[in-house]
Amino acid sequence: MSGLLVIVGDNVLLPDDKVPRPATVVVDLTSGKITTISPSRASRSSFPENVQWIDAGSKYVLPGLVDSHVHLNEPGRTDWEGFWTGTRAAASGGVTTVVDMPLNSIPPTVTASNLQIKRDAAYNQCFTDVAFWGGVIPNHQNHLKPLVDAGVKGFKCFLIESGVEEFPCVVEEDLKAAMDVLQDLPTTLLFHAELEHPSHEASPAVSTHPTLYSTFLASRPQTLEVDAISLVTRLQKSYPRLRCHIVHLSAASALPLVREAKASGVNLTVETCFHYLCLAADSIPDGQPQFKCCPPVREEGNRQLLWDALLDGTIDCVVSDHSPCVAELKKLDKGDIMEAWGGISTLGLGLSLLWTEGRKRGVGIGKIIDWTSKKSAQHASLDHVKGALKVGYDADIIIWDADAQFTVTKESLNFKNKLSPYEGQTLFGTVEKTLLRGHVVYDKENGFTAGTPIGKLL
Ligand SMILES: [Zn+2]
């Protein structure tokens, strides 16, 4: 589609602004790029008749979210999630780019040819743009450079069993072999940072019944995360050029270690997830495996410390780690948390969750977009085109009704397996429209726009 799109509004969030302001954003629909931004509301008559015009009124105009931690699981486990359903859920919640994790699909993204299989599976199925992380597994360092050349944004590895046999975890020797190669490439190494140590003593559990949330929480103590992050920061002393990134930090007791590393100039970034900021173990009911993920959602006090760390910059970004599975593997019938697949489904809810929680704490939309769009775009090396309303950037834009409320129901979820720990919660903030490169892909009134989805593989 050619021509111009003009968006005017009273509350447009421009780069580095803490609060939205009146502005006009002009988009060239051929390139999908923002061509002009002016710091006031233009009048309709100052543009030709034939431009497309969106007047957002007092609704917020925001950059789309970049969710850099999503498991889309296709091909191979497409009954868990898929490109079509996953990216629809993302778009409905204002996410315009997702970065897919290398595991849970079969094959996993550990070779360039596997990446091509994933790209082929994703083709013409995506309502958002999609980028890919590669994976580091034992003895496959020869595949790392070809994967970088083929476009992966970085690599994820596990320091503890991943839960799927085709994606084995790595030990220190494997890491050194991989980091020897990666340190000279324009890339990043992401760690699932839980490390089991023979000397770990299980916390004295009051009960070991497998349906109790406390049983599960005691089985994944904070020390697993602390020990893993210690290993990462120690290795970084030998590989100072390579950025390392901790995915889904849950344990607040690892924060001093992160602060110390960052203060000493170590090239380390950290993410946490919506669920660690919006849920607390104290109020998780027993027998409800939809609350299970690894590392676990911890106590209320821990949650407060994660918020503090986000606000002081120790934690860089917030992502979903959307990781669903089929109902059968969630063990809902028996409520067996210990046996259930670990993964929380969130795609489409993140912005509302963080906004609802942030409002209580006086956290403005500027901060929230910083953590979910700007910083996550930087993390995935997409910040030259994504993560801000800026001239020359992709016109990935959401129109956001900050005051509207909705209750999370199964019907309101757009991902495949409609199970979420947030069901029944009433949240603030709804997406009115999601635009991808200037084109409306989701509209609250009309749903998803007809025709072939226009998401690109980045
Ligand atoms: Zn994950």
TrEMBL record:
Keyword Metal-binding part of the UniProt annotation: yes
SUPFAM superfamilies according to UniProt: Composite domain of metallo-dependent hydrolases, Metallo-dependent hydrolases
An example Gene Ontology CC term for this record: cytoplasm
Reactions catalysed according to its record: (S)-allantoin + H2O = allantoate + H(+)
Domain Amidohydrolase-related: 60-441
Cofactor: Zn(2+)
Pfam families attached to this UniProt entry: Amidohydro_1
EC number(s) from the headed UniProt entry: 3.5.2.5
GO biological process, one term: allantoin catabolic process
Subunit (UniProt): Homotetramer.
Stored NCBIfam families: allantoinase
Name under which the protein is recorded: allantoinase
Native source organism of the sequence: Cylindrobasidium torrendii FP15055 ss-10
